[in-house]
Amino acid sequence: MTSLEELETEETVTCLHITLYHPRQEEKQIFRNLNFLKREQLRADEVAKFGRDTNICHYNLMDSRVSRVQFALQFFRQLNNSELGFEIKNMSKRSKLIVDNLELDYLNKVDLPHKCLIRFGDYQLLIQRQDGESVDYFETRFELAQDSLLQERHLPLMQPIPESGISPSLNSQGVKPIEIDENDV
Amino acid sequence: MTSLEELETEETVTCLHITLYHPRQEEKQIFRNLNFLKREQLRADEVAKFGRDTNICHYNLMDSRVSRVQFALQFFRQLNNSELGFEIKNMSKRSKLIVDNLELDYLNKVDLPHKCLIRFGDYQLLIQRQDGESVDYFETRFELAQDSLLQERHLPLMQPIPESGISPSLNSQGVKPIEIDENDV
Question: Cys-Cys crosslink for A98: which of A66, A119, A137, B119, Cβ 3.0 to 4.6 Å?
Answer without folding.
Answer: A119
